[in-house]
Design a protein that fits this description.
Elements: E1 3-11, E2 20-28, E3 31-37, E4 48-52, E5 57-58, E6 62-67, H1 76-80, H2 84-90, H3 92-100, E7 103-108, H4 114-121, E8 129-132, H5 171-183, E9 188-192, H6 211-223, E10 228-232
Parallel strand pairs: 1-4, 1-5, 6-7, 7-8, 9-10
Antiparallel strand pairs: 1-2, 2-3
Helix pairs in contact: 5-6
Length: 235
């Protein structure tokens, strides 16, 4: 049994209570046991690791509900000349920075595959807990389709062994695509329900996917213990 005490900081518990100055948090075996002023904490009769907050804030980890760890900036020429596996290595630094900024959980809305999530879980790299969508579902010519009139395809999230293409049209094709993404390890389904500013052949005001297609996405996701669907939506 191990104890740690985080002290010398202002506690914000995230439950709406006023900030507590001179606060402290007692942790036993990685579980919070007591929260309050340091003078009110009942300390155990055993060794305690003391962690000084140096007058900062002691609070629960934050959640970022929309990140793309493998997408860093908009340079299509550079992207087309970059081996895709390099993007996973380049993601290591922003994943660590995210964690160090106090964000302990993220929802990656396209790009990260199951291996990135497992690398964090297994302690191979430092990063926040991840909920992943694997890729983004898009209609042909929609926000997730990077096809150009020249015939070139500058896909931001090209298909890889761990990440299927997200392009799908029609109810049955959409149903199968959701199943493929879930098979790849998705915790959530990401759909482009409108156009966007980066896609070359659509517009943010364009509606994408029919009500029937969207409905089957939600149905298929719900069959997997209530997996949710998140939507890119503009306009």
């Amino acid at each position: 049994m191990t104890y740690s005490l985080i002290h010398n900081g202002t506690v914000i518990d995230g439950n709406g209570r006023s900030p507590l100055k001179s606060g402290a948090v007692l942790i036993r075996d990685n579980k919070i046991e007591q929260v309050g002023r340091k003078s009110d904490i009942r300390l155990p009769n055993s060794d305690i690791t003391m962690i000084d907050a140096h007058g900062g804030f002691i609070m629960p980890g934050l959640i970022d509900s929309h990140v793309h760890f493998v997408f860093d900036g908009i340079n299509f020429v550079e992207g087309m000349n970059t081996p895709y596996s390099l993007n996973y290595y380049k993601a290591i630094a922003p994943m660590r920075r995210t964690l160090e900024a106090g964000i302990t959980s993220v929802r990656d809305a396209g790009g990260a595959d199951l291996g990135m999530k497992q690398a964090v879980e297994q302690g191979i790299i430092a990063g926040p807990r991840m909920q992943i969508s694997i890729t983004v579902l898009s209609i042909t010519g929609g926000h997730g389709d990077s096809w150009l009139p020249s015939g070139a395809d500058m896909d931001l999230f090209p298909a890889t062994p761990g990440r299927p293409s997200g392009i799908c049209d029609g109810v049955e094709e959409v149903r199968k695509k959701v199943r493929e993404v879930l098979r790849a390890g998705a915790d959530i389904i990401k759909v482009c329900s409108t156009g966007g500013v980066l896609s070359p052949t659509d517009h943010p005001e364009f509606t994408q996917f029919s009500p029937e297609e969207l409905e089957v996405m939600v149905q298929e996701a719900a069959y997997r213990r209530g997996v949710k669907v998140m939507a890119h939506a503009q306009g």
